[in-house]
C-alpha cells in the first residue's frame, strides 16, 4: 500500500519535472545558499532516497525566482511579439525604460546599448533576493521558444553563475579576438543581447558601469569576460552551442523550424540543440520575423494559425461611426478591364460617406489612349457624388495618399489599391480593418502563377527572394496572417502610424529603389511590421503586359493575357452549366443552341466592327477570300480585318470545341477556319441571305443583338427539315453541320439592324 502510494507520487513528480536533467546534474551542485531550489531537488541525485525530499512543498522550485528583465523605451511591434511569447509561457517580465527616449544608438549599426546597462544596474540595486535569477534580454527582436522550466534546466546544466549568449562573429572590437578563451565546440564570442545569472553575480558584473548611454554594452561585457580573473570570480560562461540562446547573426544557415506535436521551435542543426530564446540580432530582423510567424505556436500544421483571431476589432454598427478611409487608386498605365475595376470599387462593402477617394491617374492623355481614359472619367462623373470626397490627381501633382492622410487628422486609414488588382472579395476593406494590425495586405495572386503581392524574404541587395514557406502560403496550404518584408498593390495602413512612425514625407522616395520598395524599406527600418493575410480569398492581379490601347474595346483582345478576367467579362454566366444543367437545346435536327457570350461581349464586338467600319459591299467579287469570288455574299467584316483572328480561334478552341465534341461524338475539331466574320443585316442594305451550304464541317452562328429590341424579323431556316430558329437569343450560339445536310437561309430582317458572328469551322 505504502509503496504503491510513493510510486504514484513519484510519477507525478517526474511528469512535472524533467528528472533526466537532474540525473545529469552532479550531486555537488547546490551547496551555496543562493542556489535555486531546482538544484536542491536535483541534488537528491538518482541514488538518494526520494521519499525524503523535503522540497516537495514547492512543486516547481526555482521557477518563481526567475525574472525576465528587458529594456524597451518604445512599444514596438517587435516588443509586443516578445511579450506575447513571454505570456504564452508564463514568464514574469519586468520592462525597464518604458517611455524614455532611447539613447543607446542605432540598433542596426553603431555600437550602443549603454543605456540598457545603466537601467539594469539601477533596477537591480532595488533587488535583494540572493536566489533571484535574472534573464536580461533584448526584446524588439527576441522570441521565447520554450518555457521557464526548460530554460532553468539548461541554465543549471551550464554549471555557471552567469551564462551569456554566444556569437560566431566578434563585435564590436575584433582586436579582442585572441583574448577569448577557446571553446571545444560552438561559438567563441560573447553576445550581450541575452544573458542569465544569479542576481549577486550580475550585480557584481555591472557594478563598475559608468559608461555613456551610447557606449557599447557588448564591449563592456566582452572586456569582463575576456579578463580571466573576472570571468572566474563572477563565474561566467558562454552558451556556445545555443542551448539557451540562439543569436541569428552569422548563424542563419544553422537554424531551421522544427514542427512537433502542435508546437514549433527553432532547431540549431549544427549543434543539434533547441534554443529556448531566439534573437534576431544585427541584420537578421527579417529572419526573426519569419521565425516569429511560427514560434512558439503561432502557426502549426495541426491547428493552423492560433493568433489570427486575437485582437480583432469590430466595426461599429452605424455607418457614420465607421473609420474614415482614404482610398488611393493608382493607375500607372492603361490597364485591362478598368470599367470592371470601378464596378467592383462601387460594390466594396463600406459606407461610401466614410470613404475619400483619390484617383492617381498617371496615364498621359495621348490621343491613342483617350478612349481608355474615358472609362476613368465616366466613373468620376457618374459615381463621384456617392463618396465623402473624390479627387482625380493629375500626373504632375505630387500628392501621395499617405501624405494626404497624415495632414488630415480625421483620416483613420489609407487603403492603397492599384488598378490592376481584381478585388473579388467585397468585404476586403472590412476584413483588413478588423484584423487590427499596423499595416496589412490581402494576399492576391496572378491567376495560375506563383506571383503574388508579397515577398516572403529579401535578397542581400533588398530585392525579391523566396522564403521556404512562400509557395505554401501562395497556394493556401498554409493559411494565416504573415509578417513579411514586402507587400504591394493593395494594402491598408493606419493613419496614426502615418502621423507617428511613418511621418517622413519622403516615404516613397529613394535614389535606387522604386516607390513600392522604397516604401516597404522605410516601414521595415522603422520596425513597423507588415503583414499579408490569406485567411480569406481576396482576388487576383491582372497582367498589364502586351496591353494595346489602340482599339475601341481593347479588353476583347485579353483572352491570352488575362484569360480568367476575359472569361468573366465575356463568356456567358451560364456557359459553365451547359453540360451539367442540360442547357443545350436542339431547335432543329442536329442544330445545337447554347449560351456563349455575355451581353457585353456582343456589344463590344458589334461596336468594334462598326468602329472599324469597312463593311464589305456584298458583291460576289471579294478580294479578302481565296479565289476572290463569293457565291453567297453578305455585308460583313472578317475577324482578321480587326486582327482578331488569333483570339477568335482561341475562343473556338476553349469554349466551342468542348461542346462540338460532346454533341457530335467522335469528331475532333481543330477549330480551324478560313472565314469568321460579323454579318450585318438591314432592311435597306441586305435583309436576308438566300439558301446555301456553308464551306465548313460545322458552323457557329452567334446572335449579337436582341430581336424585338434591336431589330424585327431575322432568324435562320434549315430547308431540308423545314425548321426555323426565328427568335435568336442574344449571346447564344447556333451550331450546325456545314456543307452536306444543313442547307439553310437567312430570314429577312424587317426593321432595325441585326448582327451575327459566323464561323465556318474546319473548312
Ligand atoms: C500559464 O498559466 C496559466 C494560468 O496562470 C495556465 O493556465 C497555463 O497553462 C500556463 N501556461 C504554461 C505554458 O505553463
Ligand atoms: C562556477 O560555479 C560552479 C558552481 O555553480 C562551480 O562548480 C565552478 O567551479 C565555478 N567555476 C569557476 C570557473 O569558478
Ligand atoms: C570594479 O572595479 C574594481 C576597482 O577598480 C575592481 O577591483 C573590480 O575588479 C571591478 N569589477 C569588475 C567586475 O569589473
Ligand atoms: C442563367 O440561368 C439561370 C437559371 O437557369 C437564369 O435564371 C439566369 O437568368 C441565367 N443567366 C443569364 C445571364 O441568362
Ligand atoms: C413548313 O412548315 C410550316 C410551318 O412551320 C408549314 O406551314 C409549311 O407547310 C411547311 N412546309 C413544308 C414543305 O412542309
Q: Can you put this structure into words, describing what you see?
A:
By secondary structure, the protein is an alpha+beta fold. It is built from 20 helices and 40 strands. The longest helix has 19 residues, at 645-663. The chain is elongated. Bound molecules: 2-acetamido-2-deoxy-beta-D-glucopyranose (5 copies). One 2-acetamido-2-deoxy-beta-D-glucopyranose (NAG) binds next to loops.
CATH topology of the largest domain: Spore Coat Polysaccharide Biosynthesis Protein SpsA, Chain A
Number of strands: 40
Indicate how many domains the architecture comprises: 3
| N- and C-termini, Cα separation | 98 Å
Regions with pLDDT < 50 over 5+ consecutive residues?
1-61
Helical proportion?
A: 25-40%
Radius of gyration: 37 Å
- Per DSSP, the total helix count is 20
Under the CATH scheme, which class of the largest domain? Answer: Alpha Beta
Query: What is the overall shape?
Result: elongated
Report the structural category.
alpha+beta
Strand content: 15-25%
What small ligands are held by the chains?
2-acetamido-2-deoxy-beta-D-glucopyranose
| Overall residue-averaged pLDDT value | 88
How would a textbook summarize the main sheet?
Answer: 8 strands, mixed
Q: Report the CATH architecture of the largest domain.
A: Alpha-Beta Complex
**Main β-sheet, spatial strand arrangement:** 16-15-14-17-25-19-26-23
Amino acid at each position: 500500500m505504502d509503496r504503491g502510494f510513493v510510486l504514484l507520487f513519484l510519477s507525478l513528480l517526474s511528469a512535472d519535472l524533467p528528472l533526466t536533467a537532474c540525473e545529469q546534474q552532479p550531486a555537488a551542485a547546490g551547496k551555496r545558499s543562493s542556489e535555486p531550489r531546482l538544484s536542491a531537488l536535483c541534488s537528491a541525485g538518482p541514488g538518494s532516497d526520494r521519499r525524503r525530499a523535503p522540497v516537495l512543498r514547492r512543486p516547481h522550485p526555482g521557477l518563481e525566482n526567475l525574472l525576465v528583465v528587458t529594456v524597451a523605451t518604445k512599444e514596438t511591434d517587435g516588443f509586443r511579439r516578445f511579450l506575447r511569447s513571454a505570456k504564452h509561457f508564463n514568464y514574469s517580465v519586468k520592462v525597464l525604460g518604458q517611455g524614455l527616449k532611447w539613447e543607446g544608438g542605432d540598433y542596426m549599426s553603431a555600437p550602443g546599448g549603454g543605456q540598457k546597462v545603466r537601467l539594469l544596474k539601477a533596477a537591480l540595486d532595488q533587488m535583494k533576493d540572493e536566489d533571484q535569477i535574472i534573464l536580461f534580454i533584448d526584446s524588439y527582436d527576441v522570441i521565447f521558444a520554450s518555457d521557464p522550466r526548460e530554460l532553468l534546466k539548461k541554465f543549471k546544466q551550464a554549471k555557471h553563475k552567469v551564462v551569456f549568449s554566444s556569437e560566431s562573429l566578434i563585435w564590436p572590437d575584433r582586436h579582442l579576438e585572441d583574448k577569448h578563451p577557446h571553446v571545444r565546440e560552438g561559438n567563441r564570442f560573447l553576445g550581450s543581447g541575452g544573458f542569465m545569472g544569479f542576481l549577486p553575480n550580475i550585480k557584481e558584473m555591472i557594478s563598475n558601469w559608468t559608461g555613456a548611454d551610447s557606449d557599447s554594452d557588448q564591449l563592456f561585457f566582452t572586456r569582463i569576460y575576456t579578463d580571466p580573473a573576472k570571468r572566474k570570480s563572477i563565474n561566467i560562461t558562454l552558451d556556445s552551442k545555443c542551448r539557451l540562446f540562439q543569436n541569428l547573426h552569422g548563424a542563419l544557415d544553422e537554424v531551421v523550424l522544427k514542427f512537433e506535436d502542435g508546437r514549433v521551435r527553432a532547431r540549431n542543426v549544427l549543434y543539434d540543440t533547441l534554443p529556448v530564446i531566439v534573437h534576431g540580432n544585427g541584420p537578421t530582423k527579417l529572419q526573426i520575423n519569419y521565425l516569429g510567424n511560427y514560434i512558439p505556436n503561432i502557426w502549426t500544421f495541426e491547428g493552423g494559425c492560433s493568433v489570427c483571431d486575437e485582437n480583432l476589432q469590430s466595426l461599429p454598427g452605424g455607418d457614420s461611426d465607421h473609420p474614415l478611409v482614404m482610398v488611393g487608386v493608382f493607375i500607372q498605365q492603361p490597364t485591362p478591364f478598368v470599367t470592371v475595376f470601378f464596378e467592383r470599387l462601387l460594390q466594396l462593402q463600406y459606407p461610401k460617406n466614410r470613404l475619400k477617394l483619390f484617383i492617381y491617374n498617371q496615364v498621359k492623355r495621348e490621343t491613342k489612349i483617350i478612349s481608355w481614359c474615358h472609362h476613368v472619367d465616366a466613373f468620376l462623373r457618374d459615381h463621384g457624388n456617392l463618396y465623402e470626397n473624390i479627387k482625380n490627381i493629375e500626373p504632375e501633382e505630387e500628392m501621395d495618399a499617405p501624405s494626404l492622410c497624415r495632414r488630415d487628422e480625421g483620416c483613420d486609414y489609407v487603403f492603397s489599391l492599384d488598378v490592376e488588382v481584381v478585388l473579388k472579395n467585397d468585404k476586403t476593406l472590412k476584413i483588413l480593418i478588423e484584423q487590427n494590425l499596423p499595416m496589412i495586405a490581402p494576399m492576391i495572386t496572378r491567376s495560375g502563377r506563383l506571383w503574388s503581392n508579397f515577398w516572403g524574404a529579401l535578397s542581400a541587395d533588398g530585392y525579391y527572394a523566396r522564403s521556404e514557406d512562400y509557395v505554401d502560403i501562395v497556394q493556401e496550404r498554409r493559411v494565416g496572417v504573415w509578417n513579411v518584408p514586402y507587400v504591394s498593390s493593395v494594402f491598408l495602413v493606419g493613419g496614426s502610424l502615418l502621423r507617428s512612425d511613418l511621418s517622413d514625407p519622403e516615404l516613397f522616395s529613394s535614389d535606387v529603389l522604386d516607390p513600392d520598395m522604397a516604401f516597404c524599406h522605410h516601414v521595415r527600418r522603422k520596425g513597423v511590421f507588415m503583414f499579408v493575410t490569406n485567411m480569406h480569398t481576396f482576388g487576383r492581379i491582372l497582367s498589364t503586359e502586351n496591353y494595346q490601347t489602340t482599339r475601341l474595346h481593347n479588353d476583347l483582345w485579353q483572352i491570352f493575357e488575362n484569360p480568367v478576367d476575359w472569361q468573366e467579362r465575356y463568356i456567358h454566366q451560364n456557359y459553365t452549366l451547359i453540360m451539367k444543367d442540360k442547357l443545350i437545346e436542339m431547335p432543329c435536327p442536329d442544330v445545337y443552341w447554347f449560351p456563349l457570350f455575355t451581353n457585353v461581349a456582343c456589344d463590344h464586338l458589334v461596336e468594334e466592327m462598326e468602329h472599324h467600319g469597312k463593311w464589305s459591299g456584298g458583291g460576289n467579287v471579294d478580294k479578302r477570300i481565296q479565289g476572290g469570288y463569293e457565291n453567297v455574299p453578305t455585308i460583313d467584316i472578317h475577324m482578321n480585318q480587326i486582327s482578331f483572328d488569333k483570339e477568335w480561334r482561341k475562343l473556338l478552341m476553349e469554349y466551342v470545341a468542348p461542346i462540338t465534341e460532346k454533341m457530335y461524338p467522335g469528331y475532333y475539331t481543330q477549330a480551324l477556319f478560313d472565314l469568321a466574320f460579323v454579318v450585318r443585316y438591314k432592311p435597306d442594305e441586305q435583309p436576308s441571305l438566300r439558301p446555301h451550304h456553308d464551306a465548313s464541317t460545322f458552323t457557329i452562328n452567334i446572335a449579337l443583338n436582341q430581336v424585338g429590341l434591336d431589330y424585327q424579323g431575322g432568324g435562320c431556316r434549315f430547308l431540308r427539315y423545314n425548321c426555323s430558329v426565328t427568335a435568336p437569343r442574344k449571346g447564344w450560339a447556333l451550331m450546325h453541320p456545314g456543307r452536306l445536310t444543313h442547307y439553310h437561309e437567312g430570314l429577312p430582317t424587317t426593321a432595325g439592324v441585326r448582327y451575327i458572328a459566323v464561323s465556318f469551322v474546319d473548312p
